[in-house]
Amino acid sequence: MPEFIDGLSASIADLDEDAYILDDYEGAVSRWCHGCGDNAILTALQKLCAEEQLAPEKTVFVSGIGCASRLPHYMGTYGFHGLHGRALPLAEGIKIKRPDLHVLVNTGDGDCCSIGAGHWIHAVRYNMDMTVMLHDNRIYGLTKNQASPTSPHGLATSTTPRGTVLQPLNAVSATLGMSNISFVAQAVDWLPGVLYDIIHQAFLHRGLSFVSILQRCPHYLPGHFDEFIKNPERIRLLSHPEGLHPEAPYMQRFTGREAHDPSDLGRARELASVTERLAVGILYRNDAVPCYEDLHRREKHLPIEAKMAALERELDRFTVLSEAETVRADGTN
Ligand SMILES: Cc1ncc(C[n+]2csc(CCOP(=O)(O)OP(=O)(O)O)c2C)c(N)n1
Ligand code: SF4
Ligand SMILES: [Mg+2]
Questions:
Q1: For residue 142, which ligand has an atom nearest its CA?
Q2: How far is CA 90 from CA 76, 260, 292, in A?
Q3: Which atom of ligand 1 is nearest to the CA of 65?
C-alpha cells in the first residue's frame, strides 16, 4: 500500500522540489486577443524555460513597445518592457553588464524593422549571446492597424486606406544580408512543434540568434496567413542534422520538406527570397562568429597599468605643444 501525505501518494511527494515546473514561468494573465499568435510564442518560451531549467532570477525577457512587447509581463522571470524600437540596445546593455543572464528579446515588426531598424543591423553585427524573436504579424497591432514595413503590397490599413503602395520588407532576407550573422531562422506560430524546436535551437546557439516568426493577428488581419495554414504545400520545412531534425515527428506530415545545410549562406538567401513557398526552419548558422561580450571582456581584463599607459598614449596624441615643448619632446635640443 502506498503511503499518503495530505492525500498525495508518497511517489508524488517525492518529486524533486528544486526542479522548476511550467507554473514557475507564468506571469500575469495575458491581455492578448483570443487566437493571437503571440500566445503560441509565449507557450513555447515557457516550455523552453522549463525544459532548460532556467532559473527565473537569471533569465530576462526584453521588449520594446507593441502587443508582442507585452510578453515579459506574462513570464514569471525578470523582464524589461522598454521603449518603442529600443529592445535590442536594452538587451545589449543588460548582456554586457550581466553576461551570466539568459537574455531573450521579443520585438514586433514595427518595433524591430521600422523605428528600431538601425539597432537591428548593429545588434546582429555585435552578435551578443541572446535569442531575438521577431513577432511578424505584418501590422502595427497595439496602435490599431497601421501599415508596418512588412505589410504586403496593397494591404488596406488605417494609414493606407487605399492599400500600401510599397513592396514589403523581407525581414529574413534583410538579416541574411547583414554583417556578422550567426543564426537566422524562420518559424510560424501555427506549427507549435516546429516553433518550439526552432526557438530551442536558437536558445542553445551561442551568439545572436534571430528568429522571425509569422504571427497571426486575428483582430486586424483575420485569415491573413490562411493560404499557408490551409495549404501545407506552401511551406518548405527545412531539415538537416545541423537544423531541424529530419526524424522529428512533424516532418512526416509535410510533403514540402527540403534538406538544407544551414552553413550554405547562398542557398539560405535563395530560400528566404521565395515568399510564395515559405521556408521554415534554420536557414543559416555559424557557431564560429565571436560574441562581442567576449571580445569586450578581453579588453576589460587588461591590467590597470596597461590601461593607464594606453590612455596616456592616446591623450598625448592630441596634446598641442608649444614650439619649445615640441623641440624638447623631439629630443632635438
Ligand atoms: C517613439 C514612439 N513612437 C511611436 C510609438 C507608438 N507605437 C507604439 S507600438 C507601435 C507599433 C507596434 O507595432 P509592432 O511593433 O509591429 O507590434 P505589434 O503591436 O504589432 O505586436 C507604435 C507605432 C511609441 N510608443 N513610441
Ligand atoms: S491586436 Fe493583433 S497582435 Fe495585438 S493582441 Fe490582438 S490579435 Fe494579437
Ligand atoms: Mg506588428
A1: 1
A2: 19, 34, 15
A3: 9
pLDDT score of 143:
98
Q: Which residues pair with 259 in a beta bridge?
A: 239
Nearest ligand 2 atom to the CA of 66 is 4
Provide the strand spans (E) within the chain.
Answer: 4-5, 8-9, 59-63, 78-81, 102-108, 130-136, 139-140, 146-147, 183-188, 208-214, 235-239, 257-259, 278-285
Report CA(59)–ligand 2 centroid distance (Å): 25
The Å distance, Cα 168 to ligand 3 centre, comes to 13
**Atom 11 in ligand 1: residue holding the nearest Cα:** 140
* pLDDT (0 to 100) of residue 164: 98
Distance CA 78, CA 33 (A): 24
- Is residue 80 a contact partner of residue 106, using CB atoms and an 8 Å limit? no
Q: What pLDDT, in 10s, does the model give residues 12-25?
A: 444 577 899 999 99
Low-confidence ranges of the chain (pLDDT < 50): 1-14, 333
Q: What is the pLDDT of residue 4?
A: 41
Residue from 217, 221, 224, 225 to probe ligand 2 pocket by mutation (most atoms less than 8 Å from CB)? 217
